[in-house]
Automatic annotation (TrEMBL):
Keywords: ATP-binding, Ligase, Nucleotide-binding
GO MF annotation list: acetyl-CoA carboxylase activity; ATP binding
Ranges for domain Biotin carboxylation: 1-151
UniProt organism field: Pyramimonas obovata
Protein name: Biotin carboxylation domain-containing protein
Gene Ontology biological process terms in this record: fatty acid biosynthetic process
InterPro entries, alphabetized: ACCA, BC-like_N, Biotin_carboxylation_dom, PreATP-grasp_dom_sf
Length: 151
């Protein structure tokens, strides 16, 4: 909202629709207060909320949005979301599907960085590294992703 006002000198020019879990609603999360509208989604399991690209695409269609900004979360690393939105005629304001396909999910990059000793921001997979017998592959093992609560 601050960017919106600084750029256009108008408040609430854009209609911002956000997904909100019961936990975020209960916590009175700032992103919900700043939104024009929120859509309640299931909580407790990220696979059923922010990582559920079908849910995101269906909410976008139902709310008749022009564009979806994926932020930096799990939805930002799924090639399926930009594909679904394109089919629906909705602009995806993130990396193209082709780029996401080549990079894989964000956790892969974090695990690779940790394996190489590159400092990372604390996350649910902090400290996980790829076993030496598997070499330094760009795609992390499914067991590591599960350990990081990403699957």
């Amino acid at each position: 909202r601050q960017w919106e006002y600084q750029t256009f000198r108008v408040r609430r020019l854009m209609n911002l629709v956000v997904l909100a879990t019961p936990e975020d609603i209960e916590a009175n999360a700032e992103y919900i207060r700043l939104a024009s509208e929120f859509v309640r989604v299931p909580g407790n399991d990220i696979k059923n909320t922010y990582a559920n690209v079908e849910l995101i695409a269906n909410v976008a269609k139902r709310c008749q949005v022009d564009a979806v900004w994926p932020g930096c979360g799990l939805e930002a690393v799924s090639a399926r979301l930009p594909q679904l939105l394109k089919e629906m005629g909705i602009l995806y304001m993130g990396q193209p599907a082709e780029v996401l396909d080549n990079i894989g999910i964000k956790a892969n990059g974090l695990i690779l960085a940790q394996t190489l000793g590159v400092p990372t921001v604390p996350w649910s997979g902090s400290g996980l590294v790829m076993p030496a017998e598997h070499g330094l592959r760009a795609r992390a093992l499914a067991a590591l992703l599960e350990a990081a609560a990403v699957t």
